[in-house]
Each structure stands twice: as structure tokens, then as C-alpha cells.
Design a protein that fits this description.
about 65% helix
Length: about 375
């Protein structure tokens, strides 16, 4: 097992993916609230860290997705159907078995919050998003819109890109999607869209986004926004982006923070982190199953140390999905249907992942 990113990949991007994986998995292993993960209640260091990273976790995954997409954008209308077919396989096909599998496991085991879902809850998950898998549906909506924008060349110019980013920010901040019509987690798509467009711009319009004044503004925005967030957390305030002011704060911290990480990514390159990042999509799909399994076994063995439960959960949630892909990713039924990968040639070959989107997290399971 080598600690190298897969051949042909940018180690700095894979390192950022690995960082995003650690933030995401840590949030889900520990629990986003007292009813999930380790079910820890009260004000704890772990809860504080989770809340502090809320505005960065899923945005980082999404900025990376936008950046990588911009390397090979949709060149025109004729390419749109092929692109959407590939993204349907990559993002939506795994939902068919995974929503059912995760839902059934939660029915049997009671779920992380000891409130087992019903069959109707699982069925609704295909339309409204289920658990952390909402991200896949939301990202598909984002990519569909971006493909259309690219086909019409709306993002080709700096002005068009900037107007699209500004529109995405305004819509996310001001529009609250009613739950009854939140199909394919539209609310999550509104959250992700500005960050995907930022990643697109960091790749396609890098010359306009790397001058020192621009960098200084983005870094300052992050520092000011993060300071405001920390003041709120220190005073016991809820910082979840459920109101217009908090959504505005989330965008400022998210855009400034993820851009700042991109600016210094070459300094952050880390071989083990890049290796983890190369498996980000598989880890994203399967990490909650692995983490829940580790908690179940430790609980059965009478182990209740938070340190032991958290550290074991982190290791299981990262390494077990990687082991699963390396062992079973060569078999096309699993590779295509469960992992969303392209099928291997008949004679087989090394596994390679498409551009991973990052991330569980976001508006609900952030």
C-alpha cells in the first residue's frame, strides 16, 4: 500500500481532498448533534470543532469539484447529453443501492440516533435526499446547470463568470426552499453552486483571481467572517445557516476560506493525505457504514471511551472504504453500480476514480 496519489493526479488537489475527507469523516464519526454519530451531548471540544468547520467542509469538496471540472468543461451543446449520462452514472447510480442499504441497516440497528427510519422514509430519500447522500443529488443539479452555462459560453468571460458567481450567492442567501418542493435537495444545490463556480474560476480565470489585491480581499473576508463565527460560538449561539444573515456569513467564510486554501495548496502537499484524497469518492459513499460498524463492535465489547470510539471510527471510516475499492473495484457490477466508476475492459486493469465531489455535509448533514 503506497502513500502516493494515483498516476496523473495533482498532489496538491488530492491533498485538499484528503483534508476535506478528514473534516467530513470527523464530523460524522463524532456526530453533527447529540442524536448522531457518537451521540455526545453538551458543549464539548469536538462539538466546537465540528461547528467551527461547518462553513468549510462541504464548500471545499465543491470548490475542488468545480476546479477539476473546469479542466475539461463541456465544450458545447452536442457534448451535454454525453456529459449528463456520465454524471448520472457517477453521481446518481450509486444512490439506488446505497440509500436502500443504509436505510435497511438503520432500520435494523436503529440508526445513529436510535430512531429507525420507516420504509417510506427510505423511499422518500430517492426524491428528497437521504443522509449524507443528498450531496450527490445536489451536485448533479449543479453540474447540469453549469453544463448548460458552458454550452452557451456564459462562463467563458470573466464578467460572465463573476455575474454567475454573484447571482449564485444572492440566490443562496435570499431563497429558502420549502421542504415540500426540495426535490433532489434543491436547497443543497443552491448552497453548493457558488462554491462550484468559485472552483471553476480558480481554474479558468486564475490570472484574474491571483493578483495580491484579490488574494488579500478573499483572505481578509475569511478572517473577518471566521472571527464573527467564533464570537457567536463562544457565546453559545447557533451558527447553522438557517437565516439570511447566517447564510451570508457562511458564504463569506466559505468562499474566503476555500480560496485561501487553494492559494496555499502547494505548501500543504502531504503524501498520505493525497493518497487518502485519491479515494475521496469511495470514502464519501461508504464511510458512515464503516463508522457505524465500528461503534457497534466497540459497544458490544463494552468500550465506551470517547477517544477510543472516535479514533477507531476515523480509521474504519477511511481505511475500510479504501480496502473495499481495492478488493472489489475490479469487478464491474460493484465498480459501476455501487462506486459509479467507468467499467473496466474485459481483461481488467487498475482502478481509477472519476473526479470525486466531495463530500457529506451541507445544509442538513453538514
Amino acid at each position: 500500500m503506497t502513500a502516493l496519489p494515483r498516476r496523473g493526479r495533482d498532489a496538491s488537489i488530492e491533498t485538499l481532498r484528503g483534508l476535506a475527507v478528514l473534516m467530513l469523516v470527523g464530523a460524522h464519526v463524532y456526530g453533527l448533534d447529540a442524536g448522531t454519530g457518537m451521540a455526545v451531548s453538551g458543549d464539548t471540544v469536538g462539538r466546537y470543532i465540528n461547528d467551527s468547520l461547518e462553513y468549510i467542509r462541504m464548500p471545499l469538496f465543491t470548490v475542488i469539484s468545480g476546479y477539476v471540472y473546469a479542466m475539461r468543461p463541456v465544450p458545447g451543446w452536442p457534448a451535454v447529453p454525453t456529459f449528463l449520462k456520465a454524471k448520472t452514472r457517477r453521481l446518481l447510480l450509486p444512490l439506488i443501492p446505497l440509500i436502500a442499504l443504509i436505510g435497511l441497516l438503520q432500520m435494523v440497528g436503529g440508526g445513529a440516533s436510535n430512531a429507525a427510519p420507516s420504509v417510506s422514509d427510505i423511499a422518500r430519500g430517492y426524491l428528497y435526499g437521504y443522509s449524507h447522500l443528498w450531496f450527490l443529488e445536489a451536485l448533479f443539479l449543479v453540474m447540469t446547470v453549469v453544463a448548460v452555462l458552458d454550452a452557451t459560453q456564459r462562463l467563458e468571460s470573466l464578467r460572465g463568470w463573476g455575474a454567475t458567481l454573484a447571482a449564485g450567492v444572492v440566490v443562496y442567501v435570499l431563497v429558502e426552499v420549502p421542504s415540500a418542493i426540495d426535490f433532489f435537495r434543491l436547497s443543497g444545490a443552491l448552497l453548493l453552486f457558488p462554491f462550484f463556480i468559485l472552483g471553476y474560476g480558480l481554474a479558468r480565470h486564475r490570472d484574474a483571481l491571483t493578483p495580491r489585491p484579490v488574494v488579500a480581499v478573499l483572505v481578509a473576508a475569511f478572517l473577518l467572517g471566521a472571527t464573527a463565527q467564533q464570537v457567536m460560538l463562544a457565546n453559545g449561539m447557533d451558527t447553522s445557516p438557517s437565516t439570511i444573515p447566517l447564510r451570508a456569513l457562511a458564504v463569506v467564510v466559505g468562499l474566503g476560506g476555500t480560496a485561501s486554501l487553494f492559494y496555499v495548496r502547494r505548501l500543504l502537499v502531504n503524501r498520505p493525505m493525497a493518497w487518502i484524497g485519491a479515494y475521496a469518492f469511495t470514502i464519501y459513499l461508504l464511510h458512515t457504514i464503516a463508522a457505524a460498524g465500528s461503534r457497534f463492535l466497540l459497544d458490544a465489547g463494552g468500550v465506551d471511551s470517547r477517544v477510543a470510539v472516535f479514533s477507531t471510527g476515523m480509521v474504519a471510516a477511511i481505511l475500510l472504504p479504501i480496502a473495499f475499492e481495492r478488493l472489489f473495484g475490479r469487478y464491474n457490477p460493484i465498480r459501476v453500480v455501487l462506486l459509479g466508476e467507468k467499467p473496466l475492459p474485459r481483461r481488467g486493469g487498475p482502478t481509477t476514480a472519476d473526479n470525486a465531489p466531495t463530500g457529506a455535509g451541507g445544509a442538513t448533514n453538514r
